[in-house]
Structure formats: C-alpha cells, structure tokens
C-alpha cells in the first residue's frame, strides 16, 4: 500500500463529510421515530463508513473510494428472483443489491442545507419502503 500526501483540502473535506454523516444520522433517527427502522449500528472501516440497520438487514453509507454516492444495501433478503432488486447495482466489493444516491446526478452540492437534508431523508425512506411494500404485497 502506498502512502499519499494529505492535502490542504483535508480540513474542509472532513467537515463536509461530518455534515453529511449528521444528515444521514438525523434522517435515520426520524425513520426510527416513524417506526420504519430499528437497531441502528455504526460501522467504519478503511473502505466504508455507514450504518447497519434492522438487525443488519440493511446497510447505508459511503464507500470511501466512491465518496460522491450514498449506497443503501439490502442484506439478508432473498434477492435472486425478486423483481425489485433486478435493476439495482451491487454494493462495491459485495454481492449485495443496492440503491444509489449520486450527489452529482442530483446536483446535491448546489442545494441549500435544508434541501440536502430532505433529499437524503427521502432517499432513505424510499429505500426502506421499497422492501416493506414488497413484503406486504408479495
């Protein structure tokens, strides 16, 4: 492994990452209050930072090699023949289907803070509800 220089953007980059982390965490707390999520656990490794949700059924977070996306992975679900998973990508490095929120495609960085929070909350809520809807109707 080669070690690279830490550049002057580190301070602002870390502050931005912590702002994003806070937005994700606040959204997860709101979804817990709505009864859509429980048992939220933080996990940070050298490749990703995120949260395991609902007894590890879901994972949401950022892969540090691709930090301009939020991934919502569906763990512990029977995905082979399930239509809701067929168009999803796999989490990087895993055989786990995932929804992706791409900051660039959604012009996230141009949005005001409140709109950014709404975007993240809506992405997470839709990601949970797609499976809950399937469970109730399939």
Q: What labels describe this entry?
A:
single chain, 138 residues, alpha+beta, six-stranded antiparallel β-sheet, 2 helices, 6 strands, 22% strand
Précis, in short:
By secondary structure, the chain is of the alpha+beta class.
Order of helices and strands: HEEEEEEH
* Discrete helix count: 2
Low-confidence region ranges? none
Total strand segments? 6
Strand order of the largest sheet: 1-2-3-4-6-5
Broad shape: globular
Helix/strand class: alpha+beta
| Largest sheet: number of strands, sense, barrel closure | 6 strands, antiparallel
**Compute the gyration radius: what is it?**
16 Å
Question: How far do the termini sit from each other?
Answer: 47 Å
Strand content: 15-25%
Fraction of helical residues: 25-40%
The structural domain count equals: 1
- The average pLDDT is 88
What does this structure look like?
This protein is α+β, with helices and mostly antiparallel strands. The chain has one domain (16-126). Helix content is 36%, strand content 22%. The chain has two helices and six strands. The protein has helices spanning 10-33, 113-137, and strands at residues 41-44, 48-53, 58-63, 69-74, 89-90, 97-102. Strands 1-2-3-4-6-5 form a six-stranded antiparallel beta sheet, with helices on one face. Strand 1 (41-44) and strand 2 form a beta hairpin. Helix 1 (10-33) packs across helix 2 (113-137). The model has no long low-confidence stretch (mean pLDDT 88).
Blueprint of the fold:
Elements: H1 10-33, E1 41-44, E2 48-53, E3 58-63, E4 69-74, E5 89-90, E6 97-102, H2 113-137
